[in-house]
Give the backbone structure.
Amino acid sequence: MPIGRLLCWDGHAMSVTPLSKLPHFDPRLVPVIGIDAHLPRVAPERLAPQALVERFARPPSWQPELVLEKLFADRAPAHAAVLVPLVMHGPQASRPTVLLTERTAQLSTHSGQIAFPGGKADEADADAADTALREAWEEVGLEAGHVQVIGMLPTYTTGTAFIVTPVVALVQPGFALRPNPHEVADVFEVPLEFLMNPANHHRHVFEWEGYRREWFSMPYYEPRPAAPGQTAAPQAVERFIWGATAAMLRNFYRFLSA
């Protein structure tokens, strides 16, 4: 059965403990049932800024692979938006990265997870792009003057009942981030080429008390430069991208590869 169907909520009320709240749950330890190395990577020329702009201006015929998680929160659905910030590094912006955050451990939902900057829509927000830009400013201090919104991906509904619109934007380097310490433990960047290569897309399956869930992860090991006087190579930092963030990146892959 395709993973997208396994993730879909069937419309019936459920009383399921969130995976992140299970005793000793660590998504890194959940078995990998497959890696999608057989799928083609997105060609580097499609990741260039003008190619990305044109793709959203004239989108192909395609379908998102993942749209819904099994609902485990007893709350009314709420609209939200995230910014998918593509930082234009390299000559002619040929080496874009995706700016991501690590959420602090004390947050009530998705604590400690890797996420895009974003959050719940406010009544004063004009649209999803307005929500995403405001949240990016509030969470990490990314100024809108550095950001060019180029389009949106289909909504993705999380198990916590947030209906999330991913807002994709090109970000010019030179910004100075100011992460909100109450929400953001760390900010980092991952090469877009890495995330758009299915050889880095891992499939996981988890079963607990008759409940089955499958998801993607995209583990990235961030290299660290050696400190002055350090002789041994520093250990890379693991950035375990999984769950909703990985699902939205997977949809982005499907959009760019269609």
